[in-house]
Amino acid sequence: MSAGPKPIPLSRPYRAAGELENLEQVLASDHAHGDGRFTVQATERLRDISGAPDVLLTTSGTHALEMSTRLIGAGPGDEIILPSFTFPSAANAIVLAGATPVFVDIDPATGNLDPNSVQEAIGPRTRAISIMHYGGVPADVTALECIARDAGILILEDNAHGLGVQGQGVRLGTIGVTAAQSFHDTKNIHCGEGGALLINDPTMLLSAEIMREKGTNRSQYLRGQVDKYSWAQIGSSYLPSELNAAVLTCQLAEFDTIQTLRHRIWDRYASELAAWADAAGVALMDPPGGLHAAHLFFLLLPSPALQREFLEHLHRAGIGAAFHYVPLHTSAAGQLYGRTPVALDRSERFAERLVRLPLWPSMSDDDVDRVIAAVTAFTVPSLLRSAASRR
Ligand SMILES: *Cc1c(COP(=O)(O)O)cnc(C)c1O
User: What's the CA gap between 142 and 193, in Å, rounded?
Assistant: First the structure.
């Protein structure tokens, strides 16, 4: 029996140099809890990469989002607008604070928040807009900032995909009063599970430190600013272990290398799939101005039936392709906790046609060749195509 070629997963965590040595140092140091030497190093590096004035490492991107809604004091009676096409954590963060998520539609090309849909959803209860940059492609920041300013509301940023993206006058992670980063092992930089809260409004820093340290002012105590620490406000344990920070430090040291490797693969997909996509009526990810984080590469099939067929075709070839977010307004929890003022056709159409291709830094040229060969071997049946174009 001959084994077929090895399957190519959708994503695979990067191994950075020095991880085991750093872990050994932490374990030998008797300081494995948070806020040690590696936390300091990772925090400094994140400040450099993002341009955010203040950074706090957190236990996850989800927890950074939870801190964000609590830090702006969102609560019962408040609404926060967010795209339906996003990860559930952005909505959970709102519901856990007692506020209501209001789902709106996206730009059908990028999957990012559509500013007009945001504008239409603003009402007297709106406290904030929660924005996400899909694939690290900047959302329409100029329009969204203008809307937020006019309405007197805040922007919260979920930058899980877009660490370090800057250009055309935007720097992702510095747009919201806060921004959340994720270091889950499917993200560009990882430490297993982890995250960071970027704080762009300095008046929130002290409160964020307390919230992250179980509601105590222990950080101030450790800096010698108070002589005892105590329960100061509501908080939780959002502070990651030094073990996570030890790995994160190594990953961040190789950030430029990781990004170069990811962009190389992304660029190959974009150029080598273009002719096939054109002939098949498939739209390839096409970031405005070419700005993105090479976090993912997506394509949009002409119809939901073709999405299913294409996924099955790739899985048979051992290619770990995947769909993405089920729109939150159609999910069980989204219907229970959220509000959806208008139909969100574009989010539904986007999700039911989208397919992501494998993209991870240590993919070999051979792996990329195999993905491209499998993709271009898929011929869109002409009958289905004309049916799709009539829809
Ligand atoms: C991964 C991700 C999160 C959650 O981050 P965790 O670190 O896994 O909690 C939130 N939002 C988006 C857009 C993500 O991709």
Answer: 32
Give distance in angstroms: CA of 166 to centre of ligand 1.
Answer: 20
- What confidence tens digit (pLDDT) does each residue in 247-260 have? 999 999 999 999 99
Strands 154-158, 178-182: parallel, antiparallel or unpaired by DSSP?
parallel
Side-chain-facing half-sphere of 378: CA atoms under 13 Å: 27
Tokens matching residue 254: 């190789």
The amino acid that residue 145 corresponds to is: E
Enumerate the β-bridge partners of residue 81.
102, 129
Strands 79-83 and 100-104 come out as parallel
Helix (H, G, I), strand (E, B) or coil at 276: helix
246 and 26 in contact (C-beta within 8 Å)? yes
One-letter amino acid identity for 238? Y
pTM of the model: 0.96
**Ligand 1 atom nearest to CA at 86:** 13
Query: Nearest C-alpha to atom 3 of ligand 1 is from which residue?
Result: 61
User: One-letter amino acid identity for 200?
Assistant: N
Residue type, 6: K
The SS3 call for residue 356 is strand
| pLDDT tens for each residue of 68-86 | 999 999 999 999 999 999 9
Q: What is the dihedral of CA 36, 37, 38, 42, to 10 degrees?
A: 100
* Positions in the chain short of pLDDT 70: 1-3, 382-391
> Residue 380 has what pLDDT?
75
- How many whole angstroms separate alpha carbon 317 and alpha carbon 312? 9
Judge if the beta carbon of residue 31 lies within 6 A of ligand 1: no
What residues form DSSP beta bridges with 156? 130, 178
Q: Which neighbouring-strand residues pair with 355?
A: 299
Among protein residues, the one with the nearest Cα to ligand 1's atom 8 is 184
Residue with tokens 């994503």: 11
**Residue-range domains of the chain with CATH:** 19-253 (3.40.640.10), 255-389 (3.90.1150.10)
Residue nearest to atom 15 of ligand 1 (CA): 160
Residue 39: name the closest of 244, 324, 303, 208 by CA: 244
